[in-house]
Design brief:
- Residues 5-132 form the Cytidyltransferase-like domain.
- It catalyses: (R)-4'-phosphopantetheine + ATP + H(+) = 3'-dephospho-CoA + diphosphate.
- Reversibly transfers an adenylyl group from ATP to 4'-phosphopantetheine, yielding dephospho-CoA (dPCoA) and pyrophosphate.
- Substrate binds at residues 9, 41, 73, 87.
- Keywords: ATP-binding, Coenzyme A biosynthesis, Cytoplasm, Magnesium, Nucleotide-binding, Nucleotidyltransferase, Transferase.
- By secondary structure, the protein is α/β, with parallel strands linked by helices.
- Helix content is 46%, strand content 19%.
- The chain has helices at residues 15-27, 47-58, 73-80, 92-109, 127-135, 146-158, and strands at residues 3-8, 30-36, 64-69, 84-89, 112-117.
- The strands form 2 sheets. It has a 3-stranded parallel beta sheet, with helices on both faces.
- Helix 1 (15-27) links the parallel strand 1 and strand 2.
- The longest helix is centred in the middle third of the chain and has 18 residues, at 92-109.
- The structure holds adenosine-5'-diphosphate.
Length: 159
């Protein structure tokens, strides 16, 4: 079975992430979305909430599983015997950083990285921008799936 890992913070998952996940799900038998637990980075949603949200909006694909992890992505891959990571590239500005990480991951563990060019519809889209817009009551429909939009509204109402 050909499996691939899509690692990231997903705080929260956006239509840009879903574009990459859904396209990967057509190329591989199984896509494992690995949600990074990063205690030093302040997140809006807990890792369990992020996992739950991705589960909800990817169940339609049928071959996507969502897991949380901390530590190195290559260790996550090694433990599950998955040799490939998929990363989305939004713009040239993503490339320098992504290339360095990909080369390091290959050096560390022989894990390959496949880059997928973002659908230009989403090349300006990031979780942090979505949070900023939602925080000030802006409209994020079209940027995130409907259930995520509702979660964002609720979260900012609470604060
Ligand atoms: P990280 O914190 O590791 O950058 P993200 O959650 O921001 O994690 O992103 C996870 C993956 O999704 C990365 O491969 C990233 O390049 C990709 N990605 C993020 N935003 C978009 C987007 N708008 N379109 C396509 N891919 C994206």
């Amino acid at each position: 079975m050909r499996r691939v890992v899509c690692p990231g913070s997903y705080d929260p998952v956006t239509n840009g992430h879903l574009d990459i996940i859904s396209r990967a799900s057509r190329l591989y038998d199984e896509v494992v979305v690995a949600v990074l637990i990063n205690i030093s980075k302040k997140s809006l949603f807990t890792v369990d909430e992020r996992v739950e949200m991705i589960d909800e909006v990817t169940k339609q694909y049928g071959n996507v599983v969502v897991e949380k992890f901390h530590g190195l992505t290559v260790d996550f891959c090694r433990e599950r015997d998955i040799p490939v990571i998929v990363r989305g590239l939004r713009a040239v500005s993503d490339f320098d950083y992504e290339l360095q990480i990909a080369q390091m991951n290959h050096q560390l563990a022989g894990v390959e990285t496949m880059f997928m060019a973002t659908n230009p519809l989403y090349s300006f889209l990031s979780s942090s921008l979505v949070k900023e817009i939602a925080q000030y009551g802006g409209d994020v429909s079209g940027l995130v799936p409907e259930p995520i939009q509702q979660r964002l509204i609720r979260r900012f109402e609470q604060s």
